[in-house]
Amino acid sequence: MPLTQFLALADAIEPEHRYRTVYDADFSVLVPGKEVIDPDTLAAFSRIDFTGHTVVDLGCNFGFFAFQARRLGAAAVVGVDREPRVLAGCELLKRHFDANGVDFACHNIDDPACPLPEQRFDIAMLVEFIGKTFVLENRVAPALAFLERLSDRELILSVQKIYWIKKELGTTPERMLKLYPAQYVVGGDFLLLDYVRDFFAPRWRMEALSPMADGYEKPRKFLRFTPA
Ligand SMILES: C[S@@+](CC[C@H](N)C(=O)[O-])C[C@H]1O[C@@H](n2cnc3c(N)ncnc32)[C@H](O)[C@@H]1O
């Protein structure tokens, strides 16, 4: 019954809020979304040691990574999103999966009065959250700063390493140089991963959980930050 209710709710939600394909426990597709989970993403995520840890997942959408963290042994997970109807869907999926230990909370992390940072978690996650709009609106640093307030032990992020400034961001290197230091605007590229790494240094040390080649790569990379 919760599954039937979930499918009806997901059908009624605007497509822009259905970000991630929703999977059943056996990974069959329940609701197609804009982004699928591929084997590389699953492999990178499974390299995180969740065993016995408390976890917060910011911008959880329908909770894929929150549920998966619990399946991988987390003691307690809180999925956070600002969309109440998305969270209503998460609650129905929680009943469908019989997933105790996973809770959901409505917060807007852009709100300076957001009370979430009063809590601390072993692992704080920001997965597939920072994208083109964040880069263009110079909102990457505030999102990273918010994440950092939630854990002093481990931060997990996924970002696209490099954006092509003209083709992907639809702007010019000159405009990007008004927003970011020159070392992150190199030729026609914006070096997001370097920017994120340097934001957290020297407090945190970065480790790539995804395989990483030199130069441009489209798939987002999972990164783990631990205290330096
Ligand atoms: C691109 S989706 C990523 C979903 C999820 N992390 C995943 O990878 O499956 C971003 C999610 O963050 C939520 N979101 C966007 N801005 C937010 C904010 N300021 N506070 C809380 N949630 C936000 C959106 O509603 C959406 O569900």
Describe this entry's structure for a reader.
α4 links the parallel β4 and β5. α1 packs antiparallel against α4 (84-97). This protein has helices at residues 2-12, 39-45, 64-71, 84-97, 132-136, 140-148, 173-179, 192-200, and strands spanning 22-23, 29-31, 54-58, 76-81, 102-106, 123-126, 154-159, 162-164, 185-186, 189-191, 204-208, 221-227. The termini are far apart. The longest helix has 14 residues, at 84-97. The chain has a seven-stranded mixed beta sheet, with helices on both faces. Strands 8-10-9 form a three-stranded antiparallel beta sheet. It has a two-stranded antiparallel ribbon with strand order 1-2. The radius of gyration is 18 Å and the shape is globular. The protein has 228 residues and is of the alpha/beta class. It has one domain: Rossmann fold (3-Layer(aba) Sandwich). The protein has eight helices and twelve strands. The relative contact order is 0.13. The chain binds S-adenosylmethionine. Residues 19-20, 59-61, 64-65, 81-83, 86, 107-110, 127-129 line the site of S-adenosylmethionine.
